[in-house]
């Protein structure tokens, strides 16, 4: 049967001016519809009639494959003697017919307020409806999908161009798998995919309204083999259509402005076009370039990839351990493959649903025990999904998305840690170089401007006291420092330092250098500190001690250790530093949650 053409002249909220002598409310054998008339729904919401596009010599109403001549004003849409709805040209030739069986010859055709054009019998029972044969437009309550048992598909099919309603190359429909996906095809090639249905939304559409603003519903009946989706909203006027260029668009009527507004469209960017980055490639519209390979994979063709042609995708860099040809006795010593976690992802196409798995741990266990399983994902509203084919149509979202776990060789999974160590050492070297540079710069500026005169006068006096042989040397140090106290520095007693470091026990010792040892201590107030005890046998004298106070007092930075105070008693010269209680700096520089693999290589590349 030739599909009914939904290329109707449709007006929402018809004005009274439309109700002329050419308006009809039903079609009967004695009251056909002519080109100078329109059929109006009872609530004056939809209007149907013959129409001609600008610059065209054809007119349309029922079928877009076989239009009528514009000059054929004797054409009519009528009810035949067999009760079928028929389109006839001026020579009484049947151009199109509903071609359905009816027990009653008394039938009529009406346009419902839903937009469905129906043929009904004498008891107003529906015999045929235009919603059963959609073209490029989906109205509320209209269904698009398929029946795998009968092979019947209900798909939206685009126009050939904006001025030609003939069927175009783009179509939109549903897959029959569990969970189902919405697709747009260009011919037979996938063009766009909306992702898996999770009982409230398609998870491949990150901005899909979860509050049912668009009212999408999916009905799947495995017993009957049917899968359909529809728009079930009656409080607003909206419709979906597939454009001649493959854009799936939702339009909403703004009653205040009396205009149609675009609510949503897909694909909206290059990453939303199916398989932009090829197998095992990930697309992110915020990155440049937008495509990258999954960790553990490399471009199949470096030349094409670097040239911006990513369609061939990526290949595995290292063979999976479970796929290696090893004997049973040897394979027990082979390290197991690992799973690389990818977050905020649009899950790939061609997955399988594992119905007998109840939680994420079970999903991982199932995939780990099956070498053919290349990836898995557990979504609470769907269940366990696994992939045994190439991972394609992967997209990384800035927000939302799901976790995908990709199987990689064990050595490859651990290789990232090795890279992190190398990068850590390189970065620390860079920081040390920067610290030395800052120290030299600060000292030069201080000597030039005299900003350190106060501290230098203090320490010069300390130098004089150090050279004296009087038995009250330690007390003289203390008195001088008290008189000229340094800002924000605390003078600690030697007893408090002994108590804090457990008498400089070996368990408190953190390390030892050329000028003395460093201990971890805990003050009476519970604060943890680092204690540097200058060795009396070291070569460091008053000048070095002086420079260290100058440097640390003035050179304060969030990534450098802060000098809290000092202790001078007898021959003891001690510096008290802030203790790094939150682990070392590399934890914050190289934690996996802070930097991506791309940023690591950027850092190591730009290190001086």
TrEMBL record:
InterPro entries cross-referenced by the UniProt entry: Bulb-type_lectin_dom (IPR001480), Bulb-type_lectin_dom_sf (IPR036426), Kinase-like_dom_sf (IPR011009), Pan_app (IPR003609), Prot_kinase_dom (IPR000719), S_locus_glycoprot_dom (IPR000858), Ser-Thr/Tyr_kinase_cat_dom (IPR001245)
Residues passing through the membrane, by range: 420-442
Signal peptide bounds: 1-22
Domain Apple: 322-409
Catalytic reaction list: L-threonyl-[protein] + ATP = O-phospho-L-threonyl-[protein] + ADP + H(+); L-seryl-[protein] + ATP = O-phospho-L-seryl-[protein] + ADP + H(+)
EC number(s) on file: 2.7.11.1
SMART domains (UniProt xref): B_lectin, PAN_AP
Annotated Bulb-type lectin domain residues: 24-132
Entry keyword annotation includes Transcription regulation: no
Keyword Transferase among record annotations: yes
A Gene Ontology biological process term: recognition of pollen
Enzyme class: transferase
GO molecular function: ATP binding; protein serine/threonine kinase activity
Domain Protein kinase, first and last residues per copy: 504-608
Keywords, comma-separated and alphabetical: ATP-binding, Disulfide bond, Glycoprotein, Kinase, Membrane, Nucleotide-binding, Serine/threonine-protein kinase, Signal, Transferase, Transmembrane, Transmembrane helix
Top-rank lineage group of the source organism: Eukaryota
PROSITE patterns: BULB_LECTIN (PS50927), PAN (PS50948), PROTEIN_KINASE_DOM (PS50011)
PANTHER family assigned: BULB-TYPE LECTIN DOMAIN-CONTAINING PROTEIN, NON-SPECIFIC SERINE_THREONINE PROTEIN KINASE
Protein name per Swiss-Prot or TrEMBL: non-specific serine/threonine protein kinase
């Amino acid at each position: 049967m030739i599909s009914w053409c939904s290329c109707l002249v449709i007006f929402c909220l018809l004005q009274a001016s439309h109700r002329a002598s050419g308006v009809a409310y039903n079609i009967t054998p004695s009251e056909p519809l002519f080109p100078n008339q329109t059929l109006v729904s009872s609530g004056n919401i939809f209007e149907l009639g013959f129409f001609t596009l600008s610059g065209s010599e054809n007119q349309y109403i029922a079928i877009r494959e076989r239009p009528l001549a514009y000059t054929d004003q004797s054409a009519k849409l009528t009810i035949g003697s067999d009760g079928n709805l028929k389109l006839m040209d001026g020579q009484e030739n049947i151009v199109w017919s509903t071609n359905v069986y009816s027990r009653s010859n008394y039938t009529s055709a009406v346009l419902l307020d839903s937009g469905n054009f129906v043929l009904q019998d004498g008891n107003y029972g529906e015999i045929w409806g235009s919603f059963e044969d959609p073209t490029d437009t989906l109205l509320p309550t209209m269904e698009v999908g398929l029946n795998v048992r009968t092979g019947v598909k209900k798909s939206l099919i685009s126009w050939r161009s904006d001025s030609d309603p003939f069927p175009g190359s783009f179509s939109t429909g549903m897959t029959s798998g569990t969970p189902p996906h919405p697709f747009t095809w260009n011919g037979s090639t996938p063009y766009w995919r909306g992702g898996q249905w999770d009982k409230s939304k398609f998870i491949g559409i990150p901005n899909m309204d979860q509050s049912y603003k668009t009212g999408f519903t999916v009905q799947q009946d495995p017993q009957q083999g049917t899968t359909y989706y529809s728009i079930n909203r009656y409080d607003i006027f909206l419709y979906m259509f597939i454009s001649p260029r493959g854009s799936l668009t939702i339009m909403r009527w703004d009653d205040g402005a009396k205009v149609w507004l675009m609510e949503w469209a897909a694909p909206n960017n290059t990453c939303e076009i199916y398989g932009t980055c090829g197998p095992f490639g990930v697309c992110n519209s915020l990155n440049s370039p937008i495509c990258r390979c999954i960790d553990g994979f490399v471009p199949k063709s470096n030349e094409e990839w670097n040239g911006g042609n990513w369609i061939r995708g990526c290949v595995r860099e290292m063979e999976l351990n479970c796929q290696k040809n090893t004997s049973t006795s040897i394979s027990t010593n082979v390290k197991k493959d690992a799973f690389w976690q990818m977050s905020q992802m649009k899950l790939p196409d061609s997955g399988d649903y594992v119905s007998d798995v109840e939680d994420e741990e079970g999903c991982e266990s199932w995939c780990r025990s099956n070498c053919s399983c290349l990836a898995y994902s557990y979504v609470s509203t769907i269940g366990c999904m696994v992939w045994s084919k190439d991972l394609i149509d992967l997209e990384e979202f800035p927000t939302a998305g799901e976790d995908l776990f990709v199987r990689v060789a064990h050595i490859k999974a651990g290789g990232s840690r090795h890279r992190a160590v190398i990068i850590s050492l390189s970065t620390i070297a860079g920081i040390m170089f920067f610290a030395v540079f800052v120290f030299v710069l600060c000292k030069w500026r201080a000597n030039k401007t005299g900003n350190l005169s106060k501290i230098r006068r203090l320490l010069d006096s300390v130098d004089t006291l150090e050279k004296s042989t009087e038995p009250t040397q330690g007390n003289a140090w203390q008195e001088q420092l008290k008189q000229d106290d340094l800002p924000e520095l605390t003078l600690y007693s030697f007893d408090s330092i002994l108590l804090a470091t457990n008498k400089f026990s070996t368990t408190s010792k953190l390390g030892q250098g050329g000028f003395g040892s460093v201990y971890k201590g805990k003050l009476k107030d519970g604060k943890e500190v680092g204690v540097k005890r200058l060795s009396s046998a070291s070569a460091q004298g008053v000048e070095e001690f002086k420079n260290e106070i100058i440097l640390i007092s003035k050179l304060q930075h969030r990534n450098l250790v802060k000098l809290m105070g000092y202790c001078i008693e007898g021959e003891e010269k001690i510096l008290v530093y802030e203790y790094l209680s939150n682990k070392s700096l590399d934890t914050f520089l190289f934690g996996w949650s802070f930097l991506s693999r791309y940023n690591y290589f950027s850092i190591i590349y730009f290190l001086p």
